Amino acid sequence: MEVINSKSYSFLVKPLQKFNEEVSELITEGYRLHETKVSIEEELSAFRENIKIWVNKVVEILQSSFDKQDNLFVFEFGQAHSQTFRFNIGPNVKVHLSDRVKKEKDNLREKVSYLEWNRKIIEVCDSISARNSTNFDLRAKYKMAEKLSLLLDRLYKLNDGNNYPIEMLLLENGIRLNNHGEARELAAILENNGYITTLGGLGSELHGAITVSGAMALEESLEPHKENYDEISSDQVEINRKIDSIIETLSKQDAGQEVLYEELQELKELYGQLSKKNWGQILKGKLFDIALEKLADKDVLQFIYENLTGQHLRLL
Fold first, then answer.
1. Does residue 258 sit within a domain?
2. CA 1, 181, 263: angle at the middle one, nearest 5?
3. pLDDT tens column, 107-116
4. Is 149 in the same domain as 207?
C-alpha cells in the first residue's frame, strides 16, 4: 500500500500567539511599504533598500521561529515573486521608471500575500503549530468519516473566501493518505454534499473552500447532541413493515442500489438480537458507509434514518 507523506515542513518552537503577532506586524509593515510613493530614481533606490530591510526581518523571524533555520517557509518566501513582468528588451533600452516601480511593488505584494496566507495555514496545521499537544498515532488511524470531519473543520477555520490546499491540510494534521487520489476523493464527498467547492488538479494542486452549507453542517455537528433511539419501534413486525416500505419507495424512485437494499434486509435480522440503541448505532454506521461509498444521496439516507429512528441523521 502506498502511503503519501507530508512535505516535512519544520515545526514552531516559538509560541503560536507570539509568532502570529510578529508576522502580523510584518504583514502590516509590508502593506504600508507597498503604499510608498515613488516618482524619481532616488526614491526608487530608497524603496528597494527598504524592501530589502523588510525582507531580511521576515527571513530572520522565519528562521528563528522553527526548529530548523533552513526551512521550507524561508525557501518559499524567497521564491515568492510576481509573474507579471518579463522585460524582454534590448541591452540599450531603459525600462520606464513607473514599470520598474510596479515590478518592485508587485513582487513585494506577492511576499506579503505569502506571509498572510501561510500565517493562517500554520495555525491550522497541527504538525507545524501543535506538534507536542497532538496525538498523531491516533490521527494516523482515522477512519474516513473522521478524515472528512477534520478536513471540513480546517476549511471552516480558514473561511475567508480563499482556497486552501486539501492534501496539505490532511497531511500536516497527521492524516494518513493511502494513495495519491484519496485527498481528491475525500474532497469530492464533501463537494457532492455541497459542503465545499474545489479548484485545481490532482494531489497538492487541489484547493478548496468551505461553503455556507458546509459551515452550517459543521456548526450543527458541534452542538451538544445525544442520540435518542426511544422512538424506534419495539415491534419486529412494524420494523419489517417500515423497511419494506422504504425499499419499495426507493425502488419506485430508482433512488437506491442493491447493496443498500441488502443492508436494510440485514437490519431486519439484527433487530431481534440487539437493543434499540445498538440497533440504531449499527443502522447509522451502515448509512455512513453507504455515504462514503457514494451508493446513495444524502437525502435518501436522511429519509431512511428518520423513518426508522425518528431522528435527524448527522453525517459529520
1. yes
2. 80
3. 999 999 999 9
4. yes
